Amino acid sequence: MSRFVVEFGKDGMPPAEEGRLDAPAFHRNHEAIWAALAPFLAAKTGEVLELGSGTGQHAVTFAARTPKLTWHPSDLQGSHLASIAAWRAFAGLANVAPPQCIDLSRPDWTWTPGGPLTAMLCINVLHISPWAVSENLIAGAARHLAAGGRLFVYGPFMRDGAHTAPSNAEFDMSLRTRNAEWGVRDTRDLSALAGARGLALADMLPMPANNFVLAFTRRPKPG
Ligand SMILES: C[S@@+](CC[C@H](N)C(=O)[O-])C[C@H]1O[C@@H](n2cnc3c(N)ncnc32)[C@H](O)[C@@H]1O
Fold it and tell me: What residues are in contact with ligand 1 under a 6 Å CB criterion?
């Protein structure tokens, strides 16, 4: 079982009566993330799977802006799955599916009901999990994305072996001190993983506070 740097609801805002948790970072990052997703997603139809959804605020907010897409939030932590369910009920949106338990530390993870995905989204997960989670996310994107589908990953990243800001270097050090398996990932390593699995790192969009949205595209399968 993974250990968590964040268990929402343990500090900060108490949960709403119905169990909705609040992630302070959501309020700072969701508009910038949406600006990165919208050019690809806004006019699309189909299914979007979010991994490590946390409170559920991103999935519900983005679903409200994309009525032709169905969003499938997921996490592996019980309190987060309950919060996602509570946000889903609160929003009352027909295009948000019930949360499902997906553990990215499992190489064979899958999603329900399955089938080719228009997009996948993973926000602030890869630096607080072992490298195997990155490997399994990319491998899962190769298995589950439709040809031309996109995997969007948000967080702090290194570029070609270098941190993009001193604050990210300090953050990386603090993460590795807490857990030797965690750390800010390098886009070069993620790009190599993706290339080996039939995906391409198509875009690296700078975000506020030295974060990025990485967009990986699923190449058509040969034949
Ligand atoms: C920092 S939180 C980010 C949550 C949410 N994406 C957000 O930005 O508000 C990291 C999330 O990753 C989840 N997580 C950690 N390890 C995971 C794993 N192996 N598989 C799936 N989710 C995981 C945690 O439960 C937590 O909800």
Answer: 2, 4, 6, 23, 25-26, 51-55, 75-77, 80, 102-105, 123-125, 128-129, 133
